[in-house]
Amino acid sequence: MLSVVQFTSRPGILDLGWGHPSADALPGEAWAAAVAQTMAEHGPQALAYGFAPGPAPLREWLADHLATTDTLPVDPEQIFVTAGASHALDLVTSLLTGPGDVVLTGSPTYHLAPPILTRQGAEVLPLPGDDDGIDPAAARRTIDSMRRAGRRIALLYLVPVFANPTGRSLPADRRAALIGLARRGGFPIVEDDTYRELWFGDPAPPSLWSESAGSGVIRIGSFAKTVAPGLRLGFVTADRDLVDRLAGLGFIVSGGGINHFAAMTLAVFGTSGRYADHVARLRHHYADRRDTLTTALRRARPELLVPDPAGGWFVWLPLPTGVTATRLIAVAERHGVSFVPGTQFHPGSPGAGSGAGDDRIRLAFSMLTDRELVEAAGRLAAALERA
């Protein structure tokens, strides 16, 4: 079946499973103005093959911008422009992993990362943890076990700020401990920093990139959440050697920089102040959507332990004792609501009945309207009565 967009709604289903922006969160008019300004200021250069690591205007603006959202300055030459965070992860793993390697992750972790991390033949190994993320002591034991077995650890993939799916940020002591473990183990951390700017109260903590002084950490980011996913723009910050290696990949050498026109327009969107204005609006927008969903859940089922994520797009909801996500999903869809079962976020989990994540569900508050979120919460509450 042909379609225009990735998500297609199902009749009668309010879908809390998709981490997509709502139409009213997209900067249509502001982006159109930036497109016109880009053509007026840059003309044919904006329509040419782009410079391999990304156009100078975007890398320069992004370096300045990242200095306002984090604690470590970035040199523009440490930035490589990508087609989003997933593309960034794919490029980095294509250079750093190979058959038989081990890639470490948290558990839970972003459920669509493992297929990318294993594309070169590596094996994903989830590290033990709890609601605060990876347990460094348990991670140390796992890493030591891998080394004794002669396994090569290629990297550790983390979403340390407003994580998908939990919405939580890794505590400072664990952040420092994991940086130390990676250094001692001789492998880099790949930090997925996608949700950094979507905070609802206090700003996000410093990135692992900053806390490590840019040593041993490769940061990836995206503009899918803060501008629009259709732009297909993201970035890597890394040492210049890795940036040069990325720029030397065959399809980059042949085709030039990624999404050059969109990248040039994003530079204008940023330097004109439109980006800052838009993200400030998004923080209020998504905080309101979070509040709508969590309030509706508490009213419908007061016994639920509903968390209040401090940023991002997701509520990681614990289920009542005796209710499993894999059983609830079928009941919920009969009631007209859907979500992602927690089992999907545990790499290697065999799914139904495994216990890994079966006591949680991920609810996205980013896409539905306030009215739809209230209705979805009511439908979910009714499904819980039947599960």
From TrEMBL:
UniProt domain Aminotransferase class I/classII large: residue ranges: 13-380
One annotated GO molecular function: DNA binding
Keywords in alphabetical order: DNA-binding
Name this polypeptide is given: DNA-binding transcriptional MocR family regulator
